Amino acid sequence: MSSKILVIDDDRKTVELVKLYLESEGFYVFSAYDGNSAVEVARKHIPDLIVLDLMIPKLDGIEVCRAIRAMSDVPIIMLTARTTEEDKLLGLNIGADDYITKPFSPREVLARVKAVLRRAQGLDSNGRSSGQTILLQDLTIDPSRHEASINDKPLPLTPKEFQLLELFAREPGKAFSRQELMEQAFGKDYEGLERTIDVHVMNLRKKIEALPKTRIRIKTVYGVGYKLVES
After folding, report:
1. 153 bridge partner residues
2. CA separation, residue 19 to residues 28, 51, 110 (Å)
């Protein structure tokens, strides 16, 4: 069954162009042109991935992202004309998985959609399942179901957070550099900010530590990156 993609932008020409490219690859595409209708379409059709422009009327992209995250962990790729580092990281802080800076090529959007969907479904670059269930202390990760839990309590993770946790848990104690984490989570050709990883790890850490009595922690290795430790 084809994946369902929701494209949200107030520029109808942009929506039609992205839609054309996605549909040519077999995706089923919904569209919305303002924040209010975007939330309603997302609630009604339950897309597999959302492409979301930040500068949309009624509810802006940040508000839409918050509203969608309150009801779903669907992957979200932001489109932004804002160029500052703070603007780009703002969306990641509230749960977006990736961002693309305008102006962009529709081919770039298509490539990012495929990559994010593949990782969200727990598949490698060849479309194979990424591995067997991981059991580590009170942490359980099931890549085939894309589910993680601590002491049988589900961890509500975005696709990027899940991918990072799986990477850490496969090699507990190993210190991963930010560059290694960038390549694993986004691919070797990704040209985004290294601070993107800091945001995703920070959000992952908060969700883990919000569950009581867990023996799993994500630690900062100063001057290097991050590692998972067991207490």
Report:
1. 150
2. 9, 10, 10
Task: Report the distance separating Cα 216 and Cα 168, nearest Å.
Answer: 11
Is residue 177 helix, strand or coil? strand
Contact, 158 vs 78, CB < 8 A?
Answer: no
Domains of the chain: 4-120 (3.40.50.2300), 134-230 (1.10.10.10)
Over residues 84-91, the mean pLDDT reads: 72
pLDDT digit string, tens, across residues 168-187: 998 899 999 988 888 877 77
Strand stretches in 39-123, DSSP E: 49-53, 76-80, 98-101
Tokens of 169: 């848990």
In Å, how far from its chain's centre is CA 96? Answer: 6
Return all residues near 195 (Cβ < 8 A) that are at least 6 apart. Answer: 85, 89
The Cα–Cα gap between 12 and 31 comes to 9
Give first-to-last CA distance, the chain, whole Å. Answer: 43
pTM for the full model? 0.68
Tokens encoding 49? 């991935």
